Amino acid sequence: MPAFANRMEYMAGSAAIIRSLFGAMNDPETISFGGGAPASDALPVEQIREIAADVLRRDTRGVEALQYGPVQGIRQLREIVAGKLLAPKGVPADPDDILIVNGGLETMNLLCQVFINPGDVILCESPTFVHCVEIFEMFQAKCIGCRTDDLGIDPEDVENKILEYHPKMVYVIPTFQNPTGKTLPAERREKLAELGSKYDVIILEDDPYRDLRYSGEELKPIKAYDKTGRTVLANSFSKIFSPGSRLGYVYADHRIIEKLIDAKSATNSHTSMLPQILCAEFFARGYYDEHLKKLCSIHRERRDAMMAALEKTMPEGTRWVFPDGGLFTWVELPGGIDTTELLKEAVGYKVAFIAGAGFYVGGTEEGKNCMRLSYGNVTPEKIEIGMKRLGDLICSKL
Amino acid sequence: MPAFANRMEYMAGSAAIIRSLFGAMNDPETISFGGGAPASDALPVEQIREIAADVLRRDTRGVEALQYGPVQGIRQLREIVAGKLLAPKGVPADPDDILIVNGGLETMNLLCQVFINPGDVILCESPTFVHCVEIFEMFQAKCIGCRTDDLGIDPEDVENKILEYHPKMVYVIPTFQNPTGKTLPAERREKLAELGSKYDVIILEDDPYRDLRYSGEELKPIKAYDKTGRTVLANSFSKIFSPGSRLGYVYADHRIIEKLIDAKSATNSHTSMLPQILCAEFFARGYYDEHLKKLCSIHRERRDAMMAALEKTMPEGTRWVFPDGGLFTWVELPGGIDTTELLKEAVGYKVAFIAGAGFYVGGTEEGKNCMRLSYGNVTPEKIEIGMKRLGDLICSKL
Questions:
Q1: Is the pTM of this model over 0.95?
Q2: Which domain holds residue B324?
Q3: Which of A79, A110, A193, A253 pairs as cysteine with A229 (C-beta 3.0–4.6 A)?
Q4: In this structure, is residue B235 part of a structural domain?
Q5: Interchain pair B63, A69: CB under 8 A
Q6: A180 lies in a domain?
């Protein structure tokens, strides 16, 4: 066989971590806190069925839905992104500066295509989203983790590392972060946007969880503080509409969007048309507001169930994050328990999570006693049962 | 703004060519022979509507369609590819060695991710599909064109160029080639597969048009002659189901598929679920056979209308390909007419095509008097009108 490209060597580790998650999730008896899926119960199946029946007609939008479409995505959806999702958050956007992508993650890939040469540095939170690290590594970027405290990434450390490593990009998930569930306060958001402008560095803001807020005050995206076009706002319809539709969007300076469109064209021509139309119509018909209330109500109940279960089942000395929204909490275990080892045993007890070590870059020892717990797609009853299993196992180790 | 990655410089030319096509296609009064779309009239809108109504229910497949899915694509669709599309063509495939992608073109991108380092050589037909050259250039591959005669790419020249350039890959569209409409005979197919094995080179077989055959004998894919796993078969549902659904597949040796799955995961996680389910059900319900007959009948009529129009409108000395299927013919004009210049004028006469020069790699002078005419999405009546406009313009130049 001809030699694989160099980039494939770099991603071997993170790809293995991601694949390992899918296995455990396939056993129907296992209660998995592993995946990042939102509640299946809340997926708007009925509304999408109604819309599909209306648009899939030759005299309505049937041909548009099935024929080739524009690389940038349909204008109706880009206008909805600008008008209904960005403007209310203090981000005035021109629909021409928005690109529709095949799921939020594709933005990270396309932005790497546009900006990353092998060896370029990307700063990220420590811990950060492992799936994006996989992408960065495929582009042979050097990922450097930045210090994170209870409020999230520390802009002072980001500035120091910008000066030390001259990165091309800083990757941040500011709201209900993956994996920690932490939310970056407004002053740090503003500071990051300023750092991007001051040092000519792309601030890649990945904000897919932000609309799933159950408590606390809404915060503007980093992009709202951007004065020079260095912040790129990536978002997704996965958590607020449907993950399987693979719909995301990116809003950026026009010079960047033009290049992203070229990269998108050379990746897969355009995003699937029917999901774009179904999503746009979902908003156009006014279903979103009610749906978002339902989503928040279902997920808030699960967040609360998870918090109560942690309180009840975890041994003394355990620390965890109270997330104001999103799908995750981050748990730090006492007594030197290695969660990578723990997971192997936990699967035998029919409970799964993601071990913390995989969320750190650069071969650090950090996170070995941590785990990410996702409550999004687990009912409150199963959260209680699963956490009992997990708590019993952990307590048996101490 | 931070510097764009080196790869973006390489694709500037081909990206501009592709964008130029989309503009001309947007004027509703223009009769465009430019795009590569199949007939909108033949899109299976009614069947897909029926299937959508059935599967988008909470008690059927509604949750599956809207929730996250497997990176590799749903098993039902991979089994259909193996059983209904590959086996009858002499290609016995394990569904585990098939990956579903977001449109046929994505395979070229993923395969470059897996195999291409900057500077690696890819051999291709001369002329070849410009959109794939765009992808190869984004990966900083060096594209070298191989000699093509009336039967398609010449394996002897391929072998000489393998020895001279040591390529990683040979990219071939063997059936109803894009842009020429030519079909490679069986012995050349076999020879290409052998060259891949003999010299340890990937033969990337891109075969999206093959099922749209209107005359002549069906031929096995190159992959059917592959004895060592060096041939990778890329195909698409764009021409036989729906282009806007962005559904394609790749069948390859397991060692390659594993890497392609990693690359897919790091590109956009997985292909949109609802289109996969709609397509799989379309086959499972037995709609495909009848649909393919309809597709071939509609497109055969258009091919015949185009052949008749060429005969009637083109000046003496014009040569063109009689395609046994697919969507394209390739026209070579007499009298030193430069089709890139001609196109600018043609748009004023409300007729469009793609100029030939863009389909050649490596700054050659070839193809300047050629054009690709696509008849797939133009009715016979409009083919007659459009070709009259084009013929009058061309004759006025001589």
A1: yes
A2: 7-44+290-396
A3: A253
A4: yes
A5: no
A6: yes
